[in-house]
Amino acid sequence: MDVKQNKDIEAVMTEAESIARNYFRQGLNCSECVYRSILDLYQPDLSPDTICLASGFGGGMGHTRNTCGAVTGAVLSLGSIKGRKNPFEKETPAERAQELKDVYAPFANMINEIQNYYGTLICKELSAPHGDFESRERKKNCQQIIGYCTSLVAKYAVEINKK
């Protein structure tokens, strides 16, 4: 990848992060922020109403503080770009299973990148060092995680769209 492509990817990542962080300030939950940002940038033909798919993932899935909502929102968002549009396009279950190997790769890479960066994907573990869940410090931390996850989806979207 040449220097210009790197700068282009960095610019897209920065824009995606900024959009997502702004949505958090407007009251969207973590998963909704990531999904809506990617919808804005890459999926203008998808109905904005599809944001409802992301709502339940906020706060670590239904505010249970399990898997981080920004992470699940990132998976959902990348799925809108790389996911199978018609799994039944392949004729046999074996062909469908084989197709998934190619589909899963960018998801696994993105998740591994997030986990390597933070050391965990669990909301409770990500937010614990910041005190009370309602604290300003925890919200700032979540806003940073939301931005980072959104920027990674943008990075992988650029890579997928090059193919």
UniProtKB/TrEMBL annotation:
Top-level division of the source organism's lineage: Bacteria
- Which Pfam families does the entry mention? C_GCAxxG_C_C (PF09719)
Record's InterPro entries? CGCAxxGCC_motif
Q: What is this protein called?
A: C_GCAxxG_C_C family protein
